[in-house]
């Protein structure tokens, strides 16, 4: 089926107010990879809705059909400027240039390269970025000028840990012979067994690894009784002389964490809360270091108890220097956040 026939089908279906996504699905079902891309279908559907009648390409008077001419370069530049998601195949169809010519224009003349979009935790507004900068500046000034010490900081958070591990893509790679079947791994079921853990640590090592029972909701009262109180008891045990003096507590902005009763309890123990910018897992040691490290090193576990034991064993096997270095990295990340005007900065890290 040639492109004019595809366009005629798009024109007819568009006249019946059929969405471009549905037209694309219909053509893919019948013609597979021979069907036009969704972007092409959406573009022609838009033209037909705007009143276009012809299904043939418009004549390009005086325009060379091949070669890296100034006219071709400018046309490619204009198209990609309007929509940077165009593929070379789509540009080829749109301009009637060869694949090699389009590729050469993009790389040598327009000087573009195609990269995959990076994932970010949240779409940051101007206000959120300014808050990230403000809070990081305040925290940094307290550590550099206000007498705060990293050795006095306690940080913690909660995360789900699966009982069965699937491994990372790189660890699943395997050499296979030419005629061997490709290895496969079944995607984890959303109902796969998992357990929620609340974990707290400081620069000298773990303080609490708390397993949350299935079905238990973490409200402010549960958080105080099962997380904060045991953590503070452990701090007092480790520091019998200084007790909780100068201790700074860092956790995220979850609802229970900033309940009035939680803040009052920490204040009664003489503990200062370190502000954490909202939507900022890149500024939380649990998120940017600990949880991912644990999950990469876990083996399959039969139940939540054995999983608890495995996590505990791994965390206590880590050198204390690793914990200390993580807090140094936390400072570096706050500095990067300020330097990058509050934008996410993971892609800038080496």
Automatic annotation (TrEMBL):
Alphabetized Pfam families for the sequence: HTH_32 (PF13565), Transposase_1 (PF01359)
Entry protein name: Transposase
Source taxon at top rank: Eukaryota
GO MF entries: nucleic acid binding
